[in-house]
Amino acid sequence: SAMRSRAEVDATLKTAKLNPAELLPAVHCLSFGPQAGGGECCLLQLEPGLCAELEAGRSLVIRGEKDEHAVLCSRDKTYDMKIADTSNMLLFVPGCKTPEELNADPASCNIIHSQIAGFSKNYWELRRCRPKLKKLRKLLMEDPYEGRDSQKDQTSTFSKYTTEDLLSLIQASEEEILHQLQVIDACKIEGYWRILDFEYEMKLLNHVTQLIDSESWPLTKVPLCACLEELESLEPREMIEHILLSYGRKYIDDGEVFFEMREDKICRAMAEMLLQNAVKFNLSEFEEVWQQSVPEGMKTRLDQLKGLALVDKSSRPETIFLLKVEDLPEDNQERFNTLFGIREKWTEVDITPYIQDLCAEKQTVGALLTKYARSSMLNGVKVYNSRRLIS
């Protein structure tokens, strides 16, 4: 198309009944460039923090397998990607000047001819979301590590995963994945991330607690070197150290490495061992056996079992059974459906450990319950039940 002259521009303004005095003197005349096809460009709306990541030369990664909804990850955060449609056409004009820039530059020419390089009717919107980490445990649980002498490990056909593999399979940022590997006590063996088989883990923990007992060490000061020397004839040194790191807090005193054993975590593991073989356990009997099973000097308390076991106060006598939060669905609605399938009415205290991990950044458990459950009073106690009929 021919370039417009100032006279043509003024005539157009007059036809449009616009007062030129109210407009900036500079006029953009737009024309479509030869490559201005739609669809080749994707627009991504970034919050300032993510812009800063890119400007600092770091990269953003889109993660997800074919059947998953894509997420975008920075180094330490995960975002849901959603397409937002706009009613106005968005035009890409390289070198386009904003009104502020035009005002600041008095020499800016009267008529600016710009070519449109592309256009779009939508853009990607990012919303901070919880990293999708359930799959991490699921992948590693396909082939738990049973120790170096296990026949199963030599013949296993399951995949093993390096950090790189997990980054390509898990929809979470690198920092979130590495943190979660610590949370689930994964262990790097020959370059691959593994989860210890529960029986094997308990066997290792038993070696350590029995040694502490026989040496009469205080539970707050277990020496690493002595543990490794005493137990290396039974298990590899790195496995002994891994168990101490999983069940203790490491510290250095006078140049020597010690561990303070974590009472709550050890009591919890012993409870899981006792409960895993029973459908339901008489509560008072369980409490007695449980206290006897933990190392001397440790005190068992039911609140150590949050998100691991549930007490049924309505049965006579009261019972306790295993219900692990990590076995529940990751999706909010499915999680609530499962919980209301297990128990029709929940108190907030009982349900909290099973939904706490679903809370978004600033969301409270109360807000989550308001959305997915309805409340009523039962014998003077507020309880929650499903908003929908559970078939």
Q: How would you summarize the topology of this molecule?
A:
Blueprint: H1 6-15, E1 27-32, E2 44-45, H2 48-55, E3 61-63, E4 71-73, E5 78-92, H3 99-104, E6 111-116, E7 118-128, H4 134-141, H5 151-155, H6 163-169, H7 174-183, E8 187-189, E9 192-194, H8 198-215, E10 222-223, H9 224-231, H10 237-247, E11 248-253, E12 256-261, H11 263-275, E13 281-282, H12 283-293, E14 309-312, E15 319-322, H13 332-342, E16 346-347, H14 348-355, H15 365-372, E17 373-378, E18 381-386
Low-confidence stretches: none
Percent in helix: 25-40%
By DSSP (H or I, 4+ residues per run), the number of helices equals 15
Structural class: alpha+beta
Biggest β-sheet: strands ordered side by side in the sheet: 2-7-5-4-3
Q: Could you report the average pLDDT, rounded to the nearest whole number?
A: 89
Biggest sheet details: 5 strands, mixed
Kindly estimate the percentage of residues that lie in beta strands according to DSSP. Answer: 15-25%
Q: Could you tell me how far the N terminus lies from the C terminus, measured between alpha carbons in angstroms?
A: 66 Å
Number of strands: 18
Radius of gyration equals 31 Å
Shape: elongated
Keywords: DNA replication
Pfam families: Dcc1
Family: Belongs to the DCC1 family.
InterPro entries: Dcc1
